[in-house]
Amino acid sequence: MSPLPPQPISPLDGRYRGAVQGLGEHLSEAGLNRARVHIEVEWLIALTEHRLFGATPLEAEQARALRQFAADFGQPEIDELAALEATTRHDVKAVEYLVRRRLAALGLNEIAELTHFACTSEDINNLAYAVTVRAAVHEVWLPRLRDVLGALRRFAVEQRTTPMLAHTHGQPATPTTVGKEFAVFVARLERVVARIEGVAVLGKFSGATGTFAAHVAADPAADWPAISREFVTSLGLDWNPLTTQIESHDWQAELFSAISHLNRILHNLCTDIWTYISMGYISQIPQEGATGSSTMPHKINPIRFENAEANLELSSALLDSLAATLVTSRLQRDLTDSTTQRNIGVALGHSLLALDNLARGLDEIAIAPAALAADLDANWEVLGEAIQTVIRAEVTAGRSSIADPYALLKELTRGHRVGAEELRAFVHGLDIGEAAKTRLLALTPGGYTGLAAELVDLLPE
Protein backbone atom coordinates (compact mmCIF):
# COMPACT_ATOMS: atom_id res chain seq x y z
CA MET A 1 0.00 0.00 0.00
CA SER A 2 1.41 3.38 -1.01
CA PRO A 3 1.63 6.02 1.73
CA LEU A 4 -0.82 8.89 1.53
CA PRO A 5 0.42 12.41 0.93
CA PRO A 6 0.47 14.52 4.16
CA GLN A 7 -3.04 14.70 5.60
CA PRO A 8 -4.64 16.66 8.46
CA ILE A 9 -5.20 14.56 11.56
CA SER A 10 -7.90 16.78 13.01
CA PRO A 11 -11.24 16.83 11.16
CA LEU A 12 -11.35 20.56 11.92
CA ASP A 13 -8.49 21.00 9.47
CA GLY A 14 -9.94 18.47 7.03
CA ARG A 15 -13.62 17.66 6.55
CA TYR A 16 -14.90 20.65 8.55
CA ARG A 17 -12.32 23.26 7.60
CA GLY A 18 -14.81 25.48 5.80
CA ALA A 19 -16.95 25.90 8.92
CA VAL A 20 -14.11 26.85 11.27
CA GLN A 21 -11.41 28.45 9.14
CA GLY A 22 -12.12 31.91 10.59
CA LEU A 23 -10.56 30.76 13.86
CA GLY A 24 -7.31 29.92 12.06
CA GLU A 25 -6.82 33.61 11.45
CA HIS A 26 -6.24 33.99 15.19
CA LEU A 27 -5.69 30.66 16.96
CA SER A 28 -3.35 28.85 14.56
CA GLU A 29 0.41 28.77 15.09
CA ALA A 30 0.72 31.40 12.37
CA GLY A 31 -1.93 33.57 14.06
CA LEU A 32 -0.05 33.32 17.35
CA ASN A 33 3.26 34.23 15.68
CA ARG A 34 1.71 37.21 13.92
CA ALA A 35 0.47 38.41 17.32
CA ARG A 36 3.93 37.87 18.81
CA VAL A 37 5.46 40.00 16.08
CA HIS A 38 2.81 42.65 16.74
CA ILE A 39 3.64 42.71 20.47
CA GLU A 40 7.41 42.86 19.86
CA VAL A 41 6.99 45.74 17.39
CA GLU A 42 4.68 47.72 19.67
CA TRP A 43 7.02 47.29 22.65
CA LEU A 44 9.96 48.45 20.56
CA ILE A 45 8.03 51.54 19.45
CA ALA A 46 6.86 52.21 23.04
CA LEU A 47 10.44 52.15 24.34
CA THR A 48 11.54 54.71 21.77
CA GLU A 49 8.54 56.91 22.56
CA HIS A 50 9.58 56.91 26.24
CA ARG A 51 13.09 57.99 25.07
CA LEU A 52 14.70 55.28 27.16
CA PHE A 53 18.47 54.77 27.00
CA GLY A 54 18.91 57.75 24.70
CA ALA A 55 16.56 56.43 22.02
CA THR A 56 14.40 58.93 20.18
CA PRO A 57 10.88 58.33 18.87
CA LEU A 58 10.78 56.73 15.46
CA GLU A 59 9.82 58.89 12.54
CA ALA A 60 6.21 58.39 11.51
CA GLU A 61 7.19 56.52 8.35
CA GLN A 62 9.54 54.22 10.27
CA ALA A 63 6.86 53.35 12.80
CA ARG A 64 4.35 52.83 10.00
CA ALA A 65 6.73 50.48 8.17
CA LEU A 66 7.34 48.43 11.31
CA ARG A 67 3.63 48.13 12.02
CA GLN A 68 2.97 47.24 8.40
CA PHE A 69 5.50 44.43 8.69
CA ALA A 70 3.48 43.01 11.59
CA ALA A 71 0.15 43.57 9.81
CA ASP A 72 1.36 41.95 6.56
CA PHE A 73 2.71 38.85 8.32
CA GLY A 74 2.07 36.02 5.85
CA GLN A 75 3.55 32.95 4.20
CA PRO A 76 7.05 34.37 3.64
CA GLU A 77 7.30 35.24 7.35
CA ILE A 78 5.83 31.87 8.34
CA ASP A 79 8.52 30.12 6.30
CA GLU A 80 11.29 32.38 7.59
CA LEU A 81 10.22 31.79 11.20
CA ALA A 82 10.19 28.03 10.64
CA ALA A 83 13.77 28.17 9.40
CA LEU A 84 14.84 30.34 12.35
CA GLU A 85 13.13 28.09 14.90
CA ALA A 86 14.84 25.04 13.39
CA THR A 87 18.06 26.64 14.61
CA THR A 88 16.95 28.40 17.82
CA ARG A 89 14.69 25.56 19.01
CA HIS A 90 12.76 28.37 20.68
CA ASP A 91 9.66 29.89 19.12
CA VAL A 92 9.76 33.33 20.76
CA LYS A 93 13.52 33.73 20.18
CA ALA A 94 12.87 33.02 16.50
CA VAL A 95 10.32 35.85 16.49
CA GLU A 96 12.88 38.18 18.06
CA TYR A 97 15.42 37.35 15.35
CA LEU A 98 12.79 37.90 12.66
CA VAL A 99 12.07 41.38 14.02
CA ARG A 100 15.78 42.16 14.20
CA ARG A 101 16.15 41.21 10.53
CA ARG A 102 13.36 43.62 9.59
CA LEU A 103 14.98 46.38 11.63
CA ALA A 104 18.17 45.85 9.67
CA ALA A 105 16.24 45.92 6.39
CA LEU A 106 14.63 49.20 7.43
CA GLY A 107 17.97 50.74 8.46
CA LEU A 108 17.06 50.73 12.16
CA ASN A 109 19.98 48.73 13.54
CA GLU A 110 20.66 51.44 16.14
CA ILE A 111 17.59 50.33 18.10
CA ALA A 112 18.01 46.58 17.50
CA GLU A 113 18.98 45.94 21.13
CA LEU A 114 15.59 47.26 22.24
CA THR A 115 14.00 44.26 20.53
CA HIS A 116 12.55 41.99 23.23
CA PHE A 117 14.12 44.32 25.79
CA ALA A 118 13.85 43.07 29.42
CA CYS A 119 11.23 40.56 28.25
CA THR A 120 10.76 36.98 29.21
CA SER A 121 9.10 34.89 26.53
CA GLU A 122 5.92 34.84 28.57
CA ASP A 123 5.66 38.63 28.45
CA ILE A 124 5.20 38.25 24.71
CA ASN A 125 3.18 35.04 24.84
CA ASN A 126 0.58 36.11 27.38
CA LEU A 127 -0.20 39.26 25.44
CA ALA A 128 -0.23 37.41 22.12
CA TYR A 129 -2.69 34.84 23.48
CA ALA A 130 -4.79 37.59 25.04
CA VAL A 131 -5.23 39.49 21.78
CA THR A 132 -5.75 36.36 19.66
CA VAL A 133 -8.23 34.64 21.99
CA ARG A 134 -10.17 37.89 22.41
CA ALA A 135 -10.30 38.40 18.65
CA ALA A 136 -11.28 34.79 17.96
CA VAL A 137 -14.13 34.92 20.47
CA HIS A 138 -15.44 38.37 19.60
CA GLU A 139 -14.85 38.41 15.85
CA VAL A 140 -15.56 34.77 14.91
CA TRP A 141 -17.25 32.71 17.63
CA LEU A 142 -19.66 35.24 19.12
CA PRO A 143 -21.04 36.42 15.75
CA ARG A 144 -21.91 32.81 14.85
CA LEU A 145 -23.50 32.36 18.26
CA ARG A 146 -25.51 35.53 17.65
CA ASP A 147 -26.77 33.99 14.39
CA VAL A 148 -28.08 31.00 16.35
CA LEU A 149 -29.56 33.18 19.08
CA GLY A 150 -31.28 35.32 16.46
CA ALA A 151 -32.81 32.26 14.82
CA LEU A 152 -33.96 30.92 18.20
CA ARG A 153 -35.46 34.26 19.19
CA ARG A 154 -37.36 34.58 15.90
CA PHE A 155 -38.65 31.02 16.28
CA ALA A 156 -39.76 31.74 19.85
CA VAL A 157 -41.65 34.88 18.83
CA GLU A 158 -43.24 33.27 15.76
CA GLN A 159 -44.45 30.29 17.80
CA ARG A 160 -45.28 32.16 21.01
CA THR A 161 -48.97 31.15 20.83
CA THR A 162 -48.59 27.65 19.33
CA PRO A 163 -49.85 25.24 22.03
CA MET A 164 -47.86 22.11 22.77
CA LEU A 165 -48.31 19.30 25.27
CA ALA A 166 -45.49 19.45 27.79
CA HIS A 167 -43.73 16.34 29.06
CA THR A 168 -42.29 16.30 32.56
CA HIS A 169 -40.46 13.05 33.32
CA GLY A 170 -41.41 12.05 29.77
CA GLN A 171 -45.10 12.00 30.70
CA PRO A 172 -47.93 14.27 29.46
CA ALA A 173 -48.00 17.45 31.56
CA THR A 174 -49.53 20.92 31.68
CA PRO A 175 -49.47 22.32 28.13
CA THR A 176 -47.11 25.13 27.17
CA THR A 177 -46.37 26.86 23.89
CA VAL A 178 -43.58 26.08 21.46
CA GLY A 179 -42.41 29.67 21.62
CA LYS A 180 -42.15 29.74 25.40
CA GLU A 181 -40.01 26.60 25.45
CA PHE A 182 -37.58 28.06 22.92
CA ALA A 183 -37.60 31.39 24.75
CA VAL A 184 -36.34 29.55 27.85
CA PHE A 185 -33.21 28.58 25.91
CA VAL A 186 -32.72 32.11 24.60
CA ALA A 187 -32.90 33.53 28.11
CA ARG A 188 -30.49 30.92 29.47
CA LEU A 189 -28.00 31.53 26.68
CA GLU A 190 -28.16 35.32 26.92
CA ARG A 191 -27.20 35.19 30.61
CA VAL A 192 -24.07 33.21 29.82
CA VAL A 193 -23.23 35.41 26.82
CA ALA A 194 -23.22 38.40 29.16
CA ARG A 195 -20.69 36.57 31.35
CA ILE A 196 -18.52 35.75 28.35
CA GLU A 197 -18.58 39.31 27.07
CA GLY A 198 -17.80 40.59 30.55
CA VAL A 199 -14.62 38.58 31.11
CA ALA A 200 -11.72 40.97 31.68
CA VAL A 201 -8.82 39.94 29.43
CA LEU A 202 -5.63 40.41 31.45
CA GLY A 203 -2.04 40.96 30.45
CA LYS A 204 1.30 41.16 32.27
CA PHE A 205 4.59 42.68 31.17
CA SER A 206 6.99 42.55 34.10
CA GLY A 207 9.89 40.24 33.33
CA ALA A 208 11.23 36.86 34.34
CA THR A 209 9.46 36.55 37.71
CA GLY A 210 7.08 39.50 37.56
CA THR A 211 9.39 41.85 39.53
CA PHE A 212 10.73 44.26 36.85
CA ALA A 213 14.21 43.27 38.13
CA ALA A 214 16.00 43.56 34.77
CA HIS A 215 14.13 46.76 33.97
CA VAL A 216 15.23 48.43 37.19
CA ALA A 217 18.81 47.21 36.71
CA ALA A 218 18.87 48.88 33.29
CA ASP A 219 17.22 52.14 34.41
CA PRO A 220 16.40 52.54 38.12
CA ALA A 221 14.79 55.94 37.54
CA ALA A 222 12.12 54.82 35.06
CA ASP A 223 8.59 54.20 36.31
CA TRP A 224 8.44 50.67 34.93
CA PRO A 225 5.03 49.73 36.36
CA ALA A 226 3.51 52.82 34.74
CA ILE A 227 5.23 52.04 31.43
CA SER A 228 4.02 48.44 31.64
CA ARG A 229 0.45 49.48 32.45
CA GLU A 230 0.40 51.96 29.59
CA PHE A 231 1.70 49.36 27.17
CA VAL A 232 -0.68 46.58 28.19
CA THR A 233 -3.74 48.82 28.19
CA SER A 234 -2.74 50.25 24.79
CA LEU A 235 -3.48 46.75 23.46
CA GLY A 236 -7.02 46.93 24.86
CA LEU A 237 -6.19 44.61 27.77
CA ASP A 238 -6.49 44.93 31.55
CA TRP A 239 -3.11 45.24 33.27
CA ASN A 240 -2.22 42.59 35.84
CA PRO A 241 0.59 43.88 38.10
CA LEU A 242 0.83 40.85 40.40
CA THR A 243 2.13 37.80 38.59
CA THR A 244 4.93 35.27 38.50
CA GLN A 245 6.74 34.74 35.21
CA ILE A 246 3.34 34.03 33.69
CA GLU A 247 0.04 35.86 33.71
CA SER A 248 -1.91 33.47 35.90
CA HIS A 249 -4.46 32.50 33.22
CA ASP A 250 -7.43 32.95 35.55
CA TRP A 251 -9.22 35.06 32.96
CA GLN A 252 -8.82 32.24 30.47
CA ALA A 253 -10.26 29.76 32.97
CA GLU A 254 -13.24 32.08 33.53
CA LEU A 255 -13.80 32.44 29.79
CA PHE A 256 -13.43 28.75 28.96
CA SER A 257 -15.68 27.71 31.84
CA ALA A 258 -18.37 30.12 30.65
CA ILE A 259 -18.16 28.91 27.04
CA SER A 260 -18.30 25.31 28.27
CA HIS A 261 -21.44 26.17 30.27
CA LEU A 262 -22.98 27.72 27.17
CA ASN A 263 -22.05 24.61 25.16
CA ARG A 264 -24.00 22.48 27.60
CA ILE A 265 -27.10 24.66 27.31
CA LEU A 266 -26.85 24.30 23.53
CA HIS A 267 -26.45 20.54 24.01
CA ASN A 268 -29.72 20.52 25.97
CA LEU A 269 -31.35 22.46 23.12
CA CYS A 270 -30.12 19.88 20.60
CA THR A 271 -31.45 16.93 22.60
CA ASP A 272 -34.83 18.64 23.02
CA ILE A 273 -35.14 19.44 19.31
CA TRP A 274 -34.07 15.89 18.45
CA THR A 275 -36.78 14.59 20.79
CA TYR A 276 -39.45 16.90 19.34
CA ILE A 277 -38.51 15.63 15.88
CA SER A 278 -38.78 12.04 17.12
CA MET A 279 -42.22 12.80 18.59
CA GLY A 280 -43.38 14.39 15.35
CA TYR A 281 -43.87 17.84 16.91
CA ILE A 282 -41.18 19.30 14.65
CA SER A 283 -40.77 18.28 11.04
CA GLN A 284 -37.64 18.45 8.93
CA ILE A 285 -37.67 20.18 5.58
CA PRO A 286 -36.26 17.92 2.85
CA GLN A 287 -33.09 19.33 1.28
CA GLU A 288 -32.65 18.96 -2.47
CA GLY A 289 -30.30 16.07 -3.27
CA ALA A 290 -29.71 15.08 0.35
CA THR A 291 -29.69 11.43 1.45
CA GLY A 292 -31.00 10.50 4.88
CA SER A 293 -30.03 6.84 4.92
CA SER A 294 -27.93 4.73 2.59
CA THR A 295 -30.58 2.01 2.65
CA MET A 296 -33.87 3.62 3.80
CA PRO A 297 -34.89 6.22 1.23
CA HIS A 298 -37.72 7.67 3.33
CA LYS A 299 -35.53 8.94 6.15
CA ILE A 300 -34.59 12.51 7.01
CA ASN A 301 -32.20 12.14 9.91
CA PRO A 302 -31.66 15.02 12.39
CA ILE A 303 -27.94 14.99 11.63
CA ARG A 304 -27.37 18.71 12.21
CA PHE A 305 -28.43 18.41 15.82
CA GLU A 306 -26.60 15.13 16.35
CA ASN A 307 -23.41 16.58 14.89
CA ALA A 308 -23.80 19.66 17.09
CA GLU A 309 -24.29 17.49 20.18
CA ALA A 310 -21.07 15.57 19.58
CA ASN A 311 -19.01 18.67 18.87
CA LEU A 312 -20.37 20.49 21.90
CA GLU A 313 -19.30 17.53 24.05
CA LEU A 314 -15.80 17.57 22.55
CA SER A 315 -15.53 21.32 22.98
CA SER A 316 -16.62 21.25 26.61
CA ALA A 317 -14.27 18.39 27.42
CA LEU A 318 -11.33 20.40 26.06
CA LEU A 319 -12.45 23.69 27.59
CA ASP A 320 -12.94 22.05 30.99
CA SER A 321 -9.45 20.58 30.74
CA LEU A 322 -7.98 23.95 29.75
CA ALA A 323 -9.74 25.72 32.62
CA ALA A 324 -8.55 23.13 35.12
CA THR A 325 -4.97 22.92 33.87
CA LEU A 326 -4.13 26.54 33.17
CA VAL A 327 -4.79 27.82 36.70
CA THR A 328 -1.88 25.77 38.06
CA SER A 329 1.78 26.62 37.47
CA ARG A 330 4.52 25.20 39.70
CA LEU A 331 6.17 27.95 41.71
CA GLN A 332 7.10 30.82 39.39
CA ARG A 333 6.77 28.92 36.09
CA ASP A 334 6.37 25.57 34.44
CA LEU A 335 5.70 24.80 30.80
CA THR A 336 2.44 22.85 31.02
CA ASP A 337 0.52 25.87 29.75
CA SER A 338 2.55 26.10 26.55
CA THR A 339 1.26 22.96 24.85
CA THR A 340 -2.14 23.26 26.56
CA GLN A 341 -2.89 26.69 25.13
CA ARG A 342 -2.12 25.48 21.62
CA ASN A 343 -5.41 23.56 21.87
CA ILE A 344 -7.58 26.64 22.48
CA GLY A 345 -8.35 26.80 18.78
CA VAL A 346 -9.37 23.13 18.76
CA ALA A 347 -11.70 23.65 21.73
CA LEU A 348 -13.34 26.71 20.20
CA GLY A 349 -13.33 25.05 16.78
CA HIS A 350 -15.58 22.22 17.93
CA SER A 351 -17.96 24.75 19.49
CA LEU A 352 -17.95 26.84 16.31
CA LEU A 353 -18.63 23.74 14.21
CA ALA A 354 -21.57 22.92 16.49
CA LEU A 355 -22.92 26.47 16.06
CA ASP A 356 -22.63 26.10 12.29
CA ASN A 357 -24.64 22.86 12.40
CA LEU A 358 -27.20 24.37 14.74
CA ALA A 359 -27.70 27.40 12.51
CA ARG A 360 -28.19 25.17 9.49
CA GLY A 361 -30.41 22.77 11.42
CA LEU A 362 -32.69 25.52 12.68
CA ASP A 363 -33.12 26.67 9.09
CA GLU A 364 -34.32 23.19 8.10
CA ILE A 365 -37.12 22.56 10.62
CA ALA A 366 -40.77 23.53 10.89
CA ILE A 367 -43.54 23.07 13.42
CA ALA A 368 -46.01 20.22 12.75
CA PRO A 369 -49.36 21.74 13.86
CA ALA A 370 -51.44 18.61 13.21
CA ALA A 371 -49.22 16.44 15.40
CA LEU A 372 -49.22 19.03 18.17
CA ALA A 373 -53.00 19.35 18.06
CA ALA A 374 -53.56 15.59 17.97
CA ASP A 375 -51.42 14.98 21.04
CA LEU A 376 -53.16 17.75 22.95
CA ASP A 377 -56.59 16.35 22.06
CA ALA A 378 -55.52 12.88 23.18
CA ASN A 379 -54.58 14.06 26.67
CA TRP A 380 -57.54 15.83 28.24
CA GLU A 381 -56.52 14.43 31.62
CA VAL A 382 -53.86 17.15 31.87
CA LEU A 383 -56.72 19.50 32.77
CA GLY A 384 -56.94 17.66 36.09
CA GLU A 385 -54.45 20.18 37.50
CA ALA A 386 -56.66 23.09 36.52
CA ILE A 387 -59.83 21.49 37.89
CA GLN A 388 -58.41 20.58 41.29
CA THR A 389 -56.79 24.01 41.64
CA VAL A 390 -60.07 25.78 40.83
CA ILE A 391 -61.93 23.58 43.33
CA ARG A 392 -59.40 24.54 46.02
CA ALA A 393 -60.00 28.20 45.27
CA GLU A 394 -63.76 27.64 45.44
CA VAL A 395 -63.48 25.82 48.79
CA THR A 396 -61.40 28.69 50.19
CA ALA A 397 -63.97 31.19 48.92
CA GLY A 398 -66.80 29.24 50.58
CA ARG A 399 -68.41 28.21 47.30
CA SER A 400 -67.60 24.48 47.59
CA SER A 401 -67.66 21.79 50.29
CA ILE A 402 -65.51 19.22 48.46
CA ALA A 403 -63.23 17.61 51.07
CA ASP A 404 -60.11 16.64 49.09
CA PRO A 405 -59.98 18.14 45.56
CA TYR A 406 -56.58 16.61 44.73
CA ALA A 407 -57.66 13.08 45.71
CA LEU A 408 -60.87 13.50 43.72
CA LEU A 409 -59.00 14.35 40.52
CA LYS A 410 -56.30 11.79 41.20
CA GLU A 411 -58.94 9.06 41.29
CA LEU A 412 -60.41 10.30 38.02
CA THR A 413 -57.25 10.90 36.00
CA ARG A 414 -54.15 9.12 37.36
CA GLY A 415 -53.13 6.40 34.93
CA HIS A 416 -56.31 6.88 32.88
CA ARG A 417 -57.15 8.44 29.56
CA VAL A 418 -60.05 10.82 30.07
CA GLY A 419 -61.88 12.18 27.04
CA ALA A 420 -63.41 15.62 26.55
CA GLU A 421 -67.00 14.53 27.18
CA GLU A 422 -66.12 12.52 30.26
CA LEU A 423 -64.22 15.44 31.74
CA ARG A 424 -66.99 17.90 30.97
CA ALA A 425 -69.57 15.61 32.54
CA PHE A 426 -67.37 15.47 35.64
CA VAL A 427 -67.16 19.27 35.79
CA HIS A 428 -70.93 19.62 35.38
CA GLY A 429 -71.38 17.53 38.52
CA LEU A 430 -68.94 19.51 40.68
CA ASP A 431 -70.02 21.43 43.76
CA ILE A 432 -68.49 24.77 42.71
CA GLY A 433 -69.72 28.22 41.73
CA GLU A 434 -71.22 28.75 38.29
CA ALA A 435 -68.54 31.22 37.12
CA ALA A 436 -65.79 28.73 37.95
CA LYS A 437 -67.72 25.90 36.32
CA THR A 438 -68.16 27.97 33.13
CA ARG A 439 -64.40 28.68 33.00
CA LEU A 440 -63.56 25.01 33.37
CA LEU A 441 -66.10 23.88 30.77
CA ALA A 442 -64.55 26.29 28.26
CA LEU A 443 -61.07 24.94 28.90
CA THR A 444 -59.28 22.66 26.40
CA PRO A 445 -55.76 21.22 26.50
CA GLY A 446 -54.74 23.59 23.70
CA GLY A 447 -56.14 26.54 25.60
CA TYR A 448 -54.56 25.61 28.93
CA THR A 449 -51.25 27.39 28.40
CA GLY A 450 -51.54 30.08 31.05
CA LEU A 451 -49.33 33.07 30.30
CA ALA A 452 -46.88 31.15 28.12
CA ALA A 453 -47.30 33.48 25.13
CA GLU A 454 -46.93 36.61 27.25
CA LEU A 455 -43.78 35.23 28.90
CA VAL A 456 -42.03 35.25 25.53
CA ASP A 457 -42.36 39.04 25.59
CA LEU A 458 -40.12 39.08 28.66
CA LEU A 459 -37.10 37.97 26.65
CA PRO A 460 -34.20 40.38 27.17
CA GLU A 461 -33.53 42.59 24.18
Automatic annotation (TrEMBL):
Function (record text): Catalyzes two reactions in de novo purine nucleotide biosynthesis. Catalyzes the breakdown of 5-aminoimidazole- (N-succinylocarboxamide) ribotide (SAICAR or 2-[5-amino-1-(5-phospho-beta-D-ribosyl)imidazole-4-carboxamido]succinate) to 5-aminoimidazole-4-carboxamide ribotide (AICAR or 5-amino-1-(5-phospho-beta-D-ribosyl)imidazole-4-carboxamide) and fumarate, and of adenylosuccinate (ADS or N(6)-(1,2-dicarboxyethyl)-AMP) to adenosine monophosphate (AMP) and fumarate.
Record-given protein name: Adenylosuccinate lyase
EC number: 4.3.2.2
UniProt domain Adenylosuccinate lyase PurB C-terminal: residue ranges: 329-449
Keyword Lyase carried by entry: yes
InterPro entries xref list: Fumarase/histidase_N (IPR024083), Fumarate_lyase_CS (IPR020557), Fumarate_lyase_fam (IPR000362), Fumarate_lyase_N (IPR022761), L-Aspartase-like (IPR008948), PurB_bact (IPR047136), PurB_C (IPR013539)
Superkingdom to which the source organism belongs: Bacteria
MF GO annotations: lyase activity
NCBIfam families (alphabetical): PRK09285.1
Keyword terms: Lyase, Purine biosynthesis
EC primary class: lyase
Domain Fumarate lyase N-terminal span(s) in chain numbering: 14-308
UniProt key word Lyase: yes
Taxonomic source organism: Lysinimonas soli
Pathway in which the depicted protein is active: Purine metabolism; AMP biosynthesis via de novo pathway; AMP from IMP: step 2/2; Purine metabolism; IMP biosynthesis via de novo pathway; 5-amino-1-(5-phospho-D-ribosyl)imidazole-4-carboxamide from 5-amino-1-(5-phospho-D-ribosyl)imidazole-4-carboxylate: step 2/2
